[in-house]
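Reminder to self: keep the SMILES exactly as supplied, no canonicalising. Ligand is magnesium ion.
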Amino acid sequence: MEFLVNNVDETICIGKQIGQLSNPGDIICLVGDLGTGKTHLTKGIAKGLNINDHITSPTFNIVNEYMGRLKFYHFDVYRVSDPDEIAAIGFDEYIFSQGVSVIEWANYIDELIPEEHIKIHIEKIDNSDSRKITINFSGKRYEYIKEIKL
Ligand SMILES: Nc1ncnc2c1ncn2[C@@H]1O[C@H](COP(=O)(O)OP(=O)(O)OP(=O)(O)O)[C@@H](O)[C@H]1O
Ligand SMILES: [Mg+2]
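Structure tokens returned for the bound complex:
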């Protein structure tokens, strides 16, 4: 699925629907260049999970945990140079739990991501606030993605 959003609010709107529809154990991988809007999309997902905390990127501590409708784990693996570093924080225990996990820069740790997951690419379009958001998923459990509308 592909969405063309024109501003931050529309990105958050897409994220919010994902958060509303998501189920325990869902794994959502975010891929896109610096500053494309991965963290803003994550803010929307958190909102959809009824989390009111201010969402900031966990760049230095790798993962931030929140509690909403479900537990929510927000990873940012940008600064991870070695996948072993991720294993060391107990990555598998987070992603194979009943929480919802969002992983910014998931492409850096491809080998640690289970086959069934949602993958979201965000791309900038002509130096504006427009973004192309492409959502792919593997696994029947993620069919709900088809319900998302802009
Ligand atoms: N349509 C849009 N969606 C998301 N962010 C947008 C959009 N238009 C403009 N922006 C701006 O782009 C920036 C996106 O920042 P954000 O931290 O979400 O990106 P990121 O992909 O997480 O970056 P990083 O790679 O550093 O983690 C913000 O300054 C935001 O205001
Ligand atoms: Mg970010």
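Points to follow up:
Residues 38-39, 57, 76, 104 surround magnesium ion (ligand 2) (CB under 6 Å).
The two ends are 11 Å apart (CA to CA).
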